Amino acid sequence: MRLAMLRTQDGTTKVAGVGLDGRYIDIREIDNSLPNSILEILEADDGLNRAAHAVAQGLVKGPFLEGTPLAPIARPGKVICIGLNYRDHAEETGAAIPTEPVVFNKFPQAVVGPDDAVELPAVAHEVDYEAELVVVIGKGGKNIPKSAALSHVAGYMCGNDVSARDWQKGRPGGQWLLGKTPDTFAPTGPWLVTHDEVGDAHQVRVQLRLNGQTMQDSTTKELIFGIEELIAHLSQLFALAPGDLIFTGTPPGVGAARKPPVFIKPGDVMEVEIDGLGVLRNPVVAAK
Ligand code: MN
Question: Is the pTM of this model over 0.90?
Fold first, then answer.
């Protein structure tokens, strides 16, 4: 199942199912017990199953909605990111292959959705793209064993771990936060695609195009730490909650590793495409 958050023509925000033909299904007209956000559906008892029933009922006859997709989870409780998690990307940056996951975070307010502008802060001069598979937690928990980890996954989205390299490297004190969390630096979407529809998320192609030119093209087969391992590792230390996001790391081809380096500038358009998860497109502008 694919779920989206829509801004409809009358300016309201509505949760919708997404048909394979791209039409948006008004699932709350079919089941009015469903809450009006993906996050609340994840938090509700049996919410994803109820939403799936509504989507199945509405696929052919609707009712349908018109609108533009927003970030599927606009304000996740946590945005957790994994660094250097592709063998081939670790090699291109000259870093050693990590022996345990490299973990950092972004503030939830960095999240934006499809077609939202990524705003370059005036003080950041080396801003880069990173195409990433984003895991969305469905069922929360602590000390989740690897064997049960996938039952805590609601699904997946495309993500772009936008990164100001001049704030990430070496300042302050080696912490990555300031380079990773400027406002708008966490585009996600266009939909949440549930785990059952994606199947094995360790077999999907991940691409990034900059102004139509392919800059990253790899697959999640290259992940050093898989999804089960990440969930087990993180939840030893803190509880995961419904709607938490895990950016799983980026493949090779980032701008900073190119010779000469490529950084994004106003007027650029970034597109992240992941098999089965759609295309996440974001224009780049200078922050006002
Ligand atoms: Mn990243």
Answer: yes
